[in-house]
């Protein structure tokens, strides 16, 4: 399994990367960590004429506090997120999620920008971007724009990114005080993509849930938030017995596929079980 | 066929070659440099047999191109030790019978080298989790875990 030939461009700036993309007119791919792209090239599922390597662009691999947000450069490697003190301090739920992303050798190389742009329907990072209300900064040769994670993921492996655009930064708003979190995933083997996973945050005010965020992956063409389940939690205490309605809302929002790893019914059942565990964990930590 | 000049420091020696951009790092190491210690199993990042260190971090050599390693340091299993002068991890694999057919062993060794550097590996569960990206078709995992645990306990 060897890739078809391609022209290789090493971009030393974002400007050069997007100019190369524009020049190739849709027949170019960006290579960042390459942990999803190179298998597709090796299988010749993709045969781009041009590969634009962004690994040598300086200034794209930061994790930095900036007032009420944390800014994460698109080239930040998964292992960097996993071990970042800033992430551990502000987004323990993301730190937990990173331990579930593939294996060390993949995490050493894979990037957050690449994972979000690739948008595997069972990957963790698109779910975490949805959960944390991330905003993506996107640059083309013509303009710079910002898109919310919830508008970015369109379908399996399909995102709101034009042929000449590149994600440069992910902006994560800090969580409110008294926020508890839960993260639950089941995969066939450690490090595999999720059969189903749920991530959740609950912010309390006067002992009641003031803000609830529930995201899931592996059970629909894209990662999803479950607005109905979130709504049910507002103003509640967990011991009010709201849990079973929330779990049913999560299951109702799932459209899980059947494949050789698990049936649709199994995944729907599983995502409810995981939501119940994540809810209990988030409540106990809030 | 256009080629590109690269200079990669492999196991301490600078290697200068003109390579096609599509040449995988794994094929560069084995085919161009003759370093056949790095094994190729799946060629899509699943089996871990081709794991090497890139600037000190473990990576899949089948998931990057040789041109991307231009200016970088690469360490392969050949860097660890030699027959008669095994490094402590290799010696421990030897003592614990941590290899059967030996195909996965280079990847196991390079992965374990990075795991020992980055994680506490306080429990067998943690060692197993760390090794989960490396497949041993002989299924001899027990002894591999024991070999790594022994190195951890000695340090």
The succession of helices and strands of chain B, N to C, reads: EEHEEEHHHH
CATH architecture of the largest domain in chain A: 2-Layer Sandwich
Number of helices of chain A: 12
- Give the distance, in angstroms, between the N- and C-terminal Cα atoms of chain A: 49 Å
* Total separate domains of chain A: 3
Taking Cα atoms only, what radius of gyration of chain A do you get, to the nearest Å? 19 Å
Number of helices of chain B: 5
CATH class of the largest domain in chain A: Alpha Beta
For the largest beta sheet of chain A, what order do the strands appear in spatially?
4-5-10-6-7
Q: How much helical structure, as a percent, in the residues of chain B?
A: 25-40%
Roughly how many Å apart are the termini of chain B?
Answer: 50 Å
CATH architecture of the largest domain in chain B: Roll
Q: Can you list the strand order of the major beta sheet of chain B?
A: 2-1-5-3-4
Describe the structure.
Chain A is of the alpha+beta class. Chain A has 3 domains: 7-53, Uridine Diphospho-n-acetylenolpyruvylglucosamine Reductase, domain 2; 63-173, Uridine Diphospho-n-acetylenolpyruvylglucosamine Reductase, domain 3; 181-285, Enolase-like, domain 1 (2-Layer Sandwich). Chain A has 12 helices and 14 strands. In chain A, helix 11 crosses helix 12 (264-285). The model of chain A has no long low-confidence stretch (mean pLDDT 97). Chain B is α+β, with helices and mostly antiparallel strands. Chain B has 2 domains: 4-79, Roll (Ubiquitin-like (UB roll)); 88-154, DNA polymerase, domain 1. Chain B has helices spanning 25-32, 88-95, 105-118, 124-131, 141-154, and strands spanning 4-10, 13-19, 51-54, 57-60, 73-75. In chain B, strands 2-1-5-3-4 form a 5-stranded mixed beta sheet, sandwiched between helices. The longest helix of chain B is centred in the last third of the chain and has 14 residues, at 105-118. The interface between A and B is medium-sized, with 30 and 34 residues.
């Amino acid at each position: 399994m060897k890739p078809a030939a391609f022209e290789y461009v090493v971009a030393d700036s974002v400007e050069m990367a997007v100019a190369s993309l524009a020049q190739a007119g849709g027949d170019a791919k960006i290579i960042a960590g390459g942990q999803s792209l190179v298998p597709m090239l090796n299988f010749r599922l993709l045969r781009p004429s041009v590969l634009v390597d962004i690994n040598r662009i300086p200034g794209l691999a930061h994790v930095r506090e900036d007032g009420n947000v944390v800014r994460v450069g698109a080239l930040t490697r998964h292992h960097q997120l996993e071990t970042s003190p800033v992430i551990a301090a502000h987004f323990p739920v993301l730190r937990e999620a990173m331990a579930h992303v593939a294996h060390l050798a993949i995490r050493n190389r894979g990037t957050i920008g690449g994972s979000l742009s690739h948008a595997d329907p069972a990957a963790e990072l698109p779910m975490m971007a949805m959960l944390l209300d991330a905003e993506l900064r996107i640059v083309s040769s013509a303009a710079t724009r910002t898109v919310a994670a919830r508008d970015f993921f369109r379908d399996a492996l399909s995102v709101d990114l034009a042929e000449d655009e590149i994600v440069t930064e992910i902006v994560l708003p800090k969580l409110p005080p008294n926020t508890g979190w839960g993260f639950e995933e089941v995969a066939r083997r450690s490090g595999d993509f999720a059969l189903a996973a749920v991530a959740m945050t609950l912010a309390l005010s006067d002992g009641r849930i003031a803000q609830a965020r529930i995201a899931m992956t592996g059970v629909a063409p894209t990662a999803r938030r479950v607005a109905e389940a979130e709504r049910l939690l507002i103003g509640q205490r967990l011991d009010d017995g709201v849990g079973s309605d929330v779990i049913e809302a999560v299951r109702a929002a799932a459209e899980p596929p059947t494949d050789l790893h698990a049936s649709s019914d199994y995944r729907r059942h599983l995502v409810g079980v995981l939501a119940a565990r994540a809810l209990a964990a988030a409540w106990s930590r809030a | 066929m256009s080629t590109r000049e690269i200079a990669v420091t492999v196991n301490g020696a600078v290697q200068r070659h003109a390579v096609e951009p599509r040449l995988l790092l794994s094929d560069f190491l084995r085919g161009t440099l003759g370093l056949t210690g790095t094994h190729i199993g799946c060629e899509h990042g699943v089996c871990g047999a081709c794991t090497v260190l890139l600037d000190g971090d473990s990576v899949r050599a089948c998931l990057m191109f040789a041109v991307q390693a231009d200016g970088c340091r690469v360490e392969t299993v050949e860097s660890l030790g030699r027959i008669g002068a095994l490094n402590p991890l290799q010696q421990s694999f030897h003592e614990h019978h941590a290899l059967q057919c030996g195909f996965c062993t280079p990847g196991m060794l390079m992965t374990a080298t990075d795991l020992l550097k980055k994680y506490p590996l306080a429990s067998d569960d943690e060692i197993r989790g760390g090794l989960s990206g490396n497949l041993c078709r002989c299924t001899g995992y027990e002894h591999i875990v024991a070999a790594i645990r022994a190195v951890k306990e000695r340090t």
